[in-house]
Design goal:
- The protein is globular and about 55 Å long.
- It is of the alpha+beta class and 203 residues long.
- It has helices at 2-6, 44-65, 81-104, 117-123, 132-151, 170-202; strands spanning 12-18, 21-27, 33-38, 159-161, 167-169.
């Protein structure tokens, strides 16, 4: 922020849209928005709270949007709210595999596939599939992880490694995937506010 200000470059922030995430937004000359972020300290209790409350908050946002608005794009040339819901769950399921291995076989080296979210959205026809099964899957998977964590005293300290040498603790994985889901749920909640503001303007 200091360097941007010194250079005379306009930016938004620093702001903390949700606990554990601080960001600065910069619009470049081509109109793209660049995000610079960092992870402020977050307690284990807060990490687990965000992870635990995510499914209910997402479901509440989906219910508030209502079926008629799920197929609205968040913005021009952006995913619809239906696609965002599926993206949250698909990302969670990818991390679920890693979390399962870290909890059951701590310290092991694993390999995972990198996937492009747009390819996933298209291949699984997320533009038309109902969201209810996805919401149910998210609730069940997170409940399973939280149950295992509760039964393993050292669960959050357990780790998993990749062939590159990168290593991640369970607490870091929970923080990342919980924050990812919350980040996109905030987009749905913003959509709800816009719709309600539009309804009020009409009345």
């Amino acid at each position: 922020a200091g360097r941007l200000e010194k250079a005379g470059i306009a930016f938004q922030g620093p702001e903390e849209p949700y606990p554990g995430w601080r960001q600065i937004l910069v619009t470049d000359p081509d109109g793209y928005v660049l995000t610079f972020w960092e992870y402020p300290p977050l307690s284990d209790e807060e990490i687990l709270r965000i992870y635990r409350e995510g499914p209910a908050r997402l479901r509440a946002a989906v219910d508030a949007l209502g079926p008629a608005n799920l197929d609205r794009p968040r913005a021009p040339n952006k995913w619809t709210y239906r696609q965002i819901v599926h993206h949250i769950v698909d990302a969670d399921m990818g991390t679920f595999q890693v979390l399962s291995l870290a909890l059951a076989l701590p310290g092991r080296t694993i390999t995972t596939n990198v996937w492009d979210p747009d390819d996933w959205i298209e291949a699984l026809r997320c533009v038309e599939r109902p969201v209810e099964p996805a919401l149910n899957l998210l609730e069940a998977a997170r409940m399973w992880v939280l149950d295992v964590v509760e039964h393993l005293p050292d669960a959050l300290d357990r780790t998993v490694k990749w062939p590159s040498g990168h290593e991640a603790q369970v607490r870091v994985l929970l923080r990342q995937v919980g924050g990812h889901g919350l980040h996109h749920t905030l987009q749905l909640e913003e959509g709800v506010r816009r719709l309600r503001a539009g309804d009020q303007a009409k009345s």
